[in-house]
Amino acid sequence: MSSSSYAASKSFAAVASSGAELLVRDLDGQYRPAHADEVLVHARRVLSSRVRRGATMSSPQAVKDYLRLHIGVLEYEVFCVLFLDAQHKIIELKQMFRGTVSQTSVYPREVVKESLVRNAAAVILAHNHPSGAAEPSRADEFLTQTLKTALQLVDVRVLDHLVVTAGEVVSFAERGLL
């Protein structure tokens, strides 16, 4: 073991024994506790690799985590659509509409149009609640049914609608609202 790797392992042992859960190595080879921003950047990178074009939707939890990190923290409402092919592989995740702190306008015609452009067989709808309350509103339920009906006309299935906050994701499918 070289003296520099010995020093790095000694530094690692010292920091690890301090109770830190996640460590990063600086350019000089010293280990230190990771800052929250570093953890979030890395988490986004890992989740983005799981929610990427061509990936199969075998893990709904990865999608929920990805959305929590990306739209759950926003201070304004956004409405996103995850476009999927017939085998539920990801075609694209697209932010379709942006609103204010408490609402966003969603146009079913545009969602149908984007689904056809991408040749999607299924979609997962998602929007955030900046208020921090993930409970779906009556307007959310009505919008979901409107989109489901419009997309059925062009043979696109709505698999789920997720309401996202920084701390929680509520699934319409899990609640039996689809």
List keywords for this structure.
178 residues; alpha+beta; Cytidine Deaminase, domain 2; 2 domains; two-stranded antiparallel ribbon; 5 helices; globular
What secondary-structure arrangement, pairings included, does this model have?
Layout: H1 3-16, E1 23-25, E2 31-33, H2 36-50, H3 60-70, E3 78-84, E4 90-98, H4 108-117, E5 122-128, H5 138-152, E6 157-164, E7 169-171
Parallel strand pairs: 5-6
Antiparallel strand pairs: 1-2, 3-4, 3-5, 6-7
Helix pairs in contact: 2-3, 4-5
Would you mind describing this structure in some detail?
Strand 5 (122-128), helix 5 and strand 6 form a beta-alpha-beta unit. It is built from five helices and seven strands, in the order αββααββαβαββ. Helix 2 (36-50) packs across helix 3 and helix 4 (108-117) packs across helix 5 (138-152). By secondary structure, the chain is of the alpha+beta class. The chain has helices at residues 3-16, 36-50, 60-70, 108-117, 138-152; strands spanning 23-25, 31-33, 78-84, 90-98, 122-128, 157-164, 169-171. The strands form two sheets. A five-stranded mixed beta sheet has the order 4-3-5-6-7. The protein folds into two domains: 3-33; 53-171, Cytidine Deaminase, domain 2. The N and C termini lie far apart (60 Å). The longest helix has 15 residues, at 36-50. Helix content is 37%, strand content 22%. The mean pLDDT is 83.
